[in-house]
Each structure stands twice: as C-alpha cells, then as structure tokens.
Amino acid sequence: MYSRKISSPPASIIKNGRAEFGTYKGISQKLDIKGMRAPYAGVPLPSFISKLRIKSRLNYLFQTEKFIGMTEFFDLKVFGTVQVIFWDKQTGKKYSYFCFMGPRKRIIPVYTTAGTCVCSRKTRYTKVFWGRNHEHLAMKFNVKGDSNRPDASASFFSPADSKNHTDYLFVNPSPASSRCSATWFSTMEIQGKININRKEEDNSKGIAALAVNRTYIKFHSISTHVWGMGKIKDKNVVFQLRSSNLDAADQDRYNENILIVDGKETALPSIVITHPFGIDKSWIIQDTESMVDLTFEPVSINKRDRNIIAMRTSYTTIYGNFTGVLLDSEGNKINLKNFPGIINRNLLRL
C-alpha cells in the first residue's frame, strides 16, 4: 500500500537557499518561501523580481448542518481578490459575493502563530484570523446584497485544543527543486451561525478546514482543488486532493493529498481528475494505488472570469456530492455516498 513519510516540521522552510521538502505533521512558525536560490531556470535574478513571482491564496472551507461554503483570498501582489460563496445543502441555492482589492504589501500573513487576513470594505467585510497561542482559529463575514442576492453574515470559531484539530505542512518542489510550493492545511470542529437578511438561518456545530498556500507560479498556471468534509458513522471525515501544472515531477513522493478521520491522517497518492462530459457532469477522481476511487456529482456551479490589462483569471467553484471509496493507512474502507464537498478550479495567466 502507498505510504509517504510524515515528519516533524522544520524550524524554517527555506535554509541556505534550498527548501526543506517533505510532508510534516505540525507547522513551522512562518509559511515563507522567500530566499530560494535562482528559482527560474537557474538565472540569478534580483531577489525583488523573484519575490514578485510568489503568489498566495487562503481557503477557509466550512460545513454546518444546513450550509456548506468557502471564503477565498488571492494575493497576486498587483491586486487581490476575495470571494465568499456558500450553498444551502437542502435546496442547492447559491450565495456568492466577490470583492476586488488594490495593491498592498501583503494580504495573507506569513506567520502561523498569529495572523489576520481581512477585506475591510463595508459592503464586503471578510476576515479570517488565528492566534495559536490563544487557541483559536476563526472566520467571519458581513456582506451586502443587491437585487440578485440578500445581505448575509456569518461567524465561526474553533478552539485549537479540540481533539479533531490538526495541522499539516506540505513543502513540495514546484515542479523541480529550484522552486517550491508550501501549504499549511488545518482541520477543526467549529461552532457558528449564518444570518441571511438579518435572520438567523443556522446556528450549529460543524467542520472546517483552512488551506494556506504560497508558491512560485508560472506565467500560465492551472490548478484543481478537491475538498470533502462531513460525518460518517459519527466520525469527522475531511480530505484534500490537488492536481496542477505546478505539481512536483515526483508526485507520489511530494503532494498535498491527505485523508483525516477523527484527527488521524492518511497520506494519499497522486490522483488524476477528469470530467469527460463537461464540468457540469460527473467528475472522476482516481489514483493508481486503489486508495482513491471517487465520482463527484455537481449540484451548483459558480464561474467568474476577469481580464485586467495583461492578466487573466478564471475561478470555477462547484458544490456537489462524492460517491465512492477512500482507503486509510490501515486498509479500512471509507465508503462515501452523497458526501458533500467542493471542487475549485483556478486559471491564472500573466
């Protein structure tokens, strides 16, 4: 059966111009990948130029009794974007809110000990913050509606001492060892509420996941992220799967794929994601080790394209349900049927 070594995290991701590649249980003090030696084709570019090629993203995914959704921050240096999107799991109704942010020094913090990621516009207030020394990780938003959508607000809180709180660090070549991609992935139980048009729609316990990534990008970058979260036989089940043109050459040794069942992790192999009949039809997600065999049936799709001077971005976020089997490290089958999740496909062209 496939396995991948999971170690203790390094004090620093970059040491003497080289990355400490690997999969780690726990997290370094900083999620910082600056300082790679000649990251582009071995050409010793000035550091301020190579730093501009580092892009960051933060995804906070949540699921409660009634809703499933995601808050997403993109830090593209020249500008940033924020999206709040969630769905009513019973009806499939979508609530989507988007905000464009102008240039700033940094949108997503590098410190994992404490940090705040915020969009402070009055009509699109969104905040994700953590203080590991104070044992919390939280998210809130307050967004104004229009003729097509209602006002909405939410607040979620998770104590870090929950038995189902986990932290993982993935440091992977991207695609070779001259560049790297680093991801902090955390899962947690949450307590929170969602209000729509100032009316409380949900106030219940749930599950959430945080994924923060920094990577040296290509001029044309495409990535697909897959997240599933829910309960199976009273156990919290969360998984993350990813495929992109920035993946390591040796994908089975270095990837971000992981399954977590009640706080116990299983490293998963590289996967192939296809949708032969279109993105609105069945998606097929499989590996070569018989540990991942899933189909994903979309319920609702949100697509947003932006063309800004010489830059093009395309975000597709899909809510749907998984059916199939995942295998944990002990060979136990995790059978999924109508298991809720989100697929996020992003394209960035500079």
Written account of the structure:
The protein has one helix spanning 47-52, and strands spanning 6-7, 14-15, 18-19, 22-25, 54-63, 67-75, 80-88, 94-101, 114-119, 124-131, 136-143, 152-158, 166-173, 180-196, 199-216, 220-232, 235-244, 258-261, 264-267, 272-274, 283-286, 292-308, 311-327, 333-349. Strands 1, 4, 5, 6, 7, 8, 9, 10, 11, 12, 13, 14 and 15 form a 13-stranded mixed beta sheet that branches. A nine-stranded antiparallel beta sheet has the order 19-18-17-16-24-23-22-21-20, with no helix packed on it. Strands 2-3 form a two-stranded antiparallel sheet. With 350 residues, it is mostly beta strands. A hairpin with a 3-residue loop joins strand 5 (54-63) and strand 6 (67-75). It contains one helix and 24 strands. The mean pLDDT is 91.
Query: What is the ordering of alpha helices and beta strands?
Result: EEEEHEEEEEEEEEEEEEEEEEEEE
Low-confidence runs = none
Look at the helices and sheets and give the structural class.
mainly beta
Mean pLDDT: 91
N- to C-terminal separation? Answer: 40 Å
Helix content: under 10%
Rg is: 19 Å
Shape: globular
Main sheet summary:
13 strands, mixed
The total beta strand count reads: 24
Number of helices: 1
Strand % is over 45%
What brief labels describe this structure?
single chain; 350 residues; nine-stranded antiparallel sheet; mainly beta
Task: Please sum up the structure shown.
The chain has 350 residues and is mainly beta. It has one helix spanning 47-52, and strands at residues 6-7, 14-15, 18-19, 22-25, 54-63, 67-75, 80-88, 94-101, 114-119, 124-131, 136-143, 152-158, 166-173, 180-196, 199-216, 220-232, 235-244, 258-261, 264-267, 272-274, 283-286, 292-308, 311-327, 333-349. Strand 18 and strand 19 form a beta hairpin.
